[in-house]
Write a structure and sequence with these properties.
5-stranded parallel beta sheet, Arc Repressor Mutant, subunit A, Rossmann fold, alpha/beta, elongated, single chain, 4-stranded antiparallel beta sheet, 8 helices, 24% strand
Length: 221
């Protein structure tokens, strides 16, 4: 079942939602601010974050940017006052996938979560030639054999594949997956070599002086 993280200043405001989702065997976690939430997401697998628009001067847009850059969860819902239309518009424009009104039915929230997960499930699978990636269950297969990649190797490979043959800049990878900027920008090369060893030498091509791209010889599925 899904792992859900609520980010709320006062946990009692989402008490009814937590009660229903827990009864449906969802795993529920609660953080009091977005700083705590980011630290938690870096260490734990969470499918959906449901957070307030603003907590302690940090807006949900800034949080979403960090989560998206580091691929920390699948969905982000924003908690808003149903009478405040501009908050809902702001949250959606910032990247939230849906809006949650706390005084609405908890069953509606459950339906929103399940609908969102069905959509992300379709986009979490990448198939190309002999390569199969499922980011939902963190599995990778090459020539029908499972490949054991580290979490960061999987993120790097998935990001390169998302370009579908387009160039992926080395600095983009560093900015996305190294929170503390490495003094040696060639650190990415080490991960690329490891991915090649576990899959195929020609799966990822170097683009001299720029970065990498997937070696495309057939159409994508």
């Amino acid at each position: 079942m899904p792992n859900v993280l609520f980010v709320v200043k006062d946990a009692t405001v989402c008490k009814a939602h937590v009660k229903l989702l827990s009864s449906k065997k969802y795993t529920i976690e609660v953080c009091g601010n977005y700083g705590q939430a980011l630290n938690f997401l870096e260490k734990n697998k969470i499918d959906i974050v449901i957070g307030e628009i603003q907590i302690e001067e940090i807006e949900i847009g800034e949080f979403i940017k960090n989560v998206t850059e580091h691929n920390l969860c699948q969905l982000i819902f924003a908690i808003t006052d149903e009478h405040t239309t501009y908050q809902s518009i702001y949250a959606l424009n910032s990247g939230a996938q849906n809006i949650v009104h706390l005084n609405k039915s908890s069953k509606l929230l459950q339906a929103q979560i399940e609908s969102g997960l069905r959509l992300t499930k379709k986009s979490s699978i990448f198939e190309y030639n002999d390569l199969y990636i499922n980011n939902e269950n963190y599995s990778v297969f090459y020539k029908k054999k499972e490949v054991k990649l580290s979490a960061k190797e999987l993120k790097i490979l998935s990001y390169i594949c998302s370009k579908k043959g387009g160039v992926c800049k080395r600095e983009d990878l560093i900015n996305r997956y190294w929170k503390e900027k490495e003094s040696n920008p060639r650190i990415v090369d080490v991960y690329i070599r490891n991915i090649r060893k576990k899959t195929a030498d020609d799966l990822i091509k170097n683009v001299h002086g720029i970065g990498y791209r997937l070696n495309t010889t057939k159409e994508y599925k």
